[in-house]
Amino acid sequence: MSKLTRDDVLKLARLSRLRLSDEEIEKFQTELSEILEYVQQLENVDVSGLEPTYQVTGLANVTRKDEPIDYGVTQEDLLKNAPAVENHQFKVKRVL
Amino acid sequence: MADWPTLSDIASQVQDGKVTARELVEKSLVAIEENKEFDAVISMTSERARSRADEIDVRIKNGEQVGRLAGVPFIAKDNFLTLTGKTTAASNMLKPFEAPYQATAINKLEAEGAICVAKANLDAFAHGSSTENSDFFTTKNPHDKERVPGGSSGGSAAAVALGVVPFALGTDTGGSVRLPASFTGVVGYKPSYGLVSRSGVVAMASSTDVVGPLARSVEDTALVLDIMAGRDDLDSTTFERDKEPYGKDSLDLSGKKIGVIREYFGEGLEAGVRQNIEAAIDMLNSAGAQVSEVSLPSVPLALAVYYIICPAEVSSNLARYDGQRFGYNAPDTKNLDESYELSREQGFGAEAKRRIMMGTYVLSSGYYDAYYKKAQTVRTKIRQEFDKAFEEFDFLVGPTAPMPAFKIGERSKDPLQMYLTDIMTVAANISGNPAISVPAGTSDNLPVGLQIIGNYKDDRRLLAAARAYQELAS
Question: What topology does CATH give the domain B7-228?
Answer without folding.
Answer: Amidase signature (AS) enzymes (3.90.1300)
